[in-house]
Design brief:
The complex is a heterodimer of chains A (about 130) and B (about 230).
Chain A (H helix, E strand, L loop, with lengths): L1 H27 L6 H15 L4 H13 L1 H10 L10 H38 L1
Chain B lengths: L2 H25 L7 H15 L4 H7 L1 H5 L1 H7 L1 H6 L1 H6 L1 H25 L4 H7 L6 H11 L3 H25 L5 H23 L1 H24 L1 H9 L1
Helix pairs in contact in B: 1-2, 1-3, 8-12, 8-13, 10-11, 10-13, 11-12, 12-13
Classes of the chains: A mainly alpha (about 130), B mainly alpha (about 230).
Organism (chain A): Terribacillus aidingensis
Subcellular location (chain A): Cell membrane
InterPro entries (chain A): LrgA/CidA
């Protein structure tokens, strides 16, 4: 238990190194991309270059991805600061987001599924 | 109370309620019990019933909000592990996400016009289907209110996480690439979290879909959205 916690914490520290490097780089070069995405690219490049081994970060990375919803919770509670949207327009907004999200998912999934089937068919014929 | 103590309490309370919400959702998988709906609602109830201010809670839970950054970095792991799979499907990914981002912006704009939304509200809602940090950037670029955009991004995530499985069933999406891209495009990180429940391949396609969606929306924000807004608002 103790060893597992230490492993996760040290791996988390390593991921933070990439995060802060990304934030710093984005700031210095005033990139239009958030630091966390720059950090993602840096980590990806380091993995491909063999500078970082997958085992060094896999446990903490798995935890971060599995608990992703937890990290959205404070922002979701932050909706409290927008009490004024709890009116008719708020309800309309909710409806807009519901309908639009449905259409977006359906359109994206439909396109991908069609292309996937066509590609698989092509592979079978060749 | 010192700040450190406030953060310690907020971190623990948030974590315990989140864990409990997950247990409830696992036992009764009803849309209303989705952890990103149930857990914030319980916390909002606690804040409202006590003398706490929303800003006190924001400070006390800032450790978890901070973790969004490292979590974004950690998305490099599934991409690295499944690089060959992604390379093999690159055409499908690019085409689907191009379609998805255009439909996201287009449908938000059209529905906003139908509902007579205007000004800040309309502009701030356009980048709502992409991951928070980039949605904020896009919102700034096109002249929206970043805080309002954040609210729309979160609401999109909650709704997307709930309706995602229904869309997958209704549209008969069978391949991991279609399921993953639909979830990642439609509901960013929250959709990707759902995709990982389907399987590792779905999770990977969702991750890449989420990242590509953010990248492409940044491009549209520079090239397409300004002229779209000019045509529709003027």
């Amino acid at each position: 238990m103790v060893r597992k916690t230490i492993t996760i914490l040290s791996q988390l520290a390593l991921i933070h190194v990439f995060y802060f490097a990304g934030v710093g780089l984005a700031h210095i070069l005033s990139l239009p991309v958030p630091g966390s995405i720059v950090g993602l690219v840096l980590l990806l490049l380091s993995l491909f270059a063999g500078i970082v081994k997958l085992e060094w970060i896999e446990k903490a990375g798995g935890w971060l991805l599995a608990e992703l919803l937890l990290f959205f919770v404070p922002s979701a509670v932050g909706i409290l600061n927008y009490k004024e949207i709890l009116n008719w327009q708020g309800l309309e907004t909710l409806l807009l987001i519901l309908v639009s999200t449905f259409i977006v998912m359906a359109a994206t999934g439909f396109t991908a599924e069609r292309l996937y089937r066509r590609k698989r068919k092509g592979e079978h014929h060749s | 109370m010192t700040t450190a103590l406030i953060i310690l309490i907020g971190t623990i309370v948030t974590y315990v309620i989140y864990r409990a919400s997950k247990v409830v959702y696992k036992k009764w998988p009803l849309p209303f019990f989705h952890p990103l709906l149930l857990c914030p609602l319980i916390l909002i109830a606690i804040i409202q019933l006590s003398s706490l201010q929303p800003s006190d809670y924001a400070l006390s839970s800032s450790l978890w909000t901070h973790m969004l950054g490292p979590a974004t970095v950690a998305f490099a792991i599934p991409i690295y592990k499944h690089a060959p799979l992604l390379r093999k499907n690159i055409t499908i990914i690019l085409t689907s996400i191009a379609a998805g981002t255009l439909v996201a912006i287009g449908s938000s704009l059209l529905l906003s016009l139908v509902l007579h939304f205007n000004g800040d509200l309309l502009i701030s809602i356009l980048p709502r289907s992409i991951t928070t940090p980039i949605a904020i950037e896009v919102s700034k670029t096109i002249g929206g209110l970043p805080t309002l955009t954040t609210v729309f991004v979160i609401v999109t995530g909650v709704i997307g996480g709930i309706i995602g499985p229904y869309v997958i069933r209704l549209m008969a999406l069978k391949s991991p690439v279609a399921r993953g891209l639909a979830l990642g495009m439609g509901a960013h990180g929250v959709g990707t979290n759902k995709a990982m429940e389907y399987g590792e391949q779905e999770g990977t396609f969702s991750t890449i879909g989420m990242i590509m969606a953010a990248g492409m929306t940044l491009v549209w924000a520079g090239l397409l959205i300004p002229s779209l807004l000019q045509i529709t608002i003027l």
